[in-house]
Design a protein that fits this description.
Elements (H helix, E strand, L loop, with lengths): L1 H8 L1 H23 L4 H6 L7 H12 L3 H22 L4 H33 L11 H11 L3 H8 L14
Helix pairs in contact: 2-5
Amino acid sequence: MAITVLKKQLGNLHILRGLSALYVVVYHAKFFFWSGGTAFLEEFPVTDLSFWEKFIFIIDMMSSAGKEMVFVFFLLSGFFISLSLEISKYKKWQFLIIRTIRIYMPFVLSMIIAFICLYVSFYINKDVFIENSNYQLNNDLFEAHNSLNIMSFLKTLFFVRDANNFIGYNN
């Protein structure tokens, strides 16, 4: 009974954690969907934008605190993980194994998908893989594709840096 009451009372914190995770996704994705900011506004004034373009622009301007929301997400996640450990019927080592599997398996799957997408996208549209481009995205894609191999993939799966890079993070 007490656990049910506790879950109801913490519902808003779960919502905040979910919204912060969504915010971080938008923050990371905006680099791919939106670039320019001031330069864009000089060339395309807001008055010339359609409703959908204005909406996207507003989302972009509101999603500039991604690093802070990562902190909020991790803080709340740590709270909920420690809470679930406290009310869990498992021993600490069993809980750790279950948590590791629960987190690591989606990570492995996402790395496989990212590896395949990067590899296939090179053959679909080579034009975006340009070295020394004026666009950071093109440079990052070029660097990511050039460092793409089985060894870098395996190192990423075990959180070992390959030079300065992990697959999917190249800065």
